[in-house]
Fold:
Amino acid sequence: MISTHILGTGAYAPKRILTNQDLENMVATTDAWISERTGIKERRIAAEGEVTSDMAVIAARHALAMAGCKAEDLDMILVATISADMPLPSCAVIVQAKLGATRAFAFDLSAACAGSLFGLSIADQFIRTGKAKRILVVGAELLSRLVDWTDRNTCVLFGDAAGAMVVGPTSDPGRGLISTHLHSDGTAAGILSIPGGGSQHPQSEDVLARNMHKITMNGREIYKFAVRVLPQAILEALEANGLKVGDIDHIVSHQANARIVESVLERLDIPLEKCWLNLDRYGNTSSASLPISLDEANRAGRLKKGDLIAMMAIGAGMAWGSALMRW
Ligand code: ACO
Structure:
């Protein structure tokens, strides 16, 4: 039986670092407040002129090189993003053109911070049915241009970066994706949104004046939602496959906030050391955060052949899910 394996991983973050101390000079905040409540110490900010597809392409090239695969080998490109270069066309077709992935069809996916996990699940369907042999899944976000830099509730949280995975089939029964589990609850749409700029509130002087084209969020509600549903999603994946919490070797998680990850793992009785944390260096990079964490853990040699990896992610929507795979 064919299953889907991750053949290569890659990541990219812009050079410019914005520290918590820098933010102290921009809004009424402190390094202590940000560090204690979120675990974030610094985040990356894209250079002027740098766009989301540029970051996606660099991460993708690293993943392609690791997979030993050329851009022309790709059958499909999926970019998970809420910060595409422009509303139309998709970021994915721009990535396709920049990579020279001439054979691939390409499209974007909107599931916010859960986007890469949703993308991996979609890619899995195409691989297992034999419709595609090489798929590039990228999570890329340029959130510094969607953040209201006068709003201390949100501007301290986010950063710019991209992460990529090249997936393909494996016939090794001991390796690959075991299952993915996706969920959405649109009744919670209001707790994290960019309300302006779409068909409901098209771009206008009023939308701009009221900062409706920037991220707005109810942090407390997100926190409560995340720590409730993420443990359930991990348990659902384990139960579906007759596995136990103790079987998990690594957690690869979207990183919104260190306290969310700590609380979820505590509820599951999973030691924090099993999770690759890099939030202190990047902040919340939305769809990019999960593939970046996977890439860093992979390149650091943490993931051994056959290890059981549990992935989890949650984002605006709310949209969330989990995945299990053998490395
Ligand atoms: N610096 C200093 N004070 C601040 C800051 C800041 N950057 N931001 C908010 N405050 C203040 C608030 O104004 C409030 O002051 P008040 O009591 O005088 O009104 C006080 O701190 C407490 O605010 P709360 O929002 O209640 O703080 P809380 O303890 O809930 O922490 C936080 C806020 C860190 C956002 C928390 O709710 C959280 O982690 N939520 C999850 C949000 C998240 O991760 N969002 C990312 C996107 S979603 C995703 O990726 C899944």
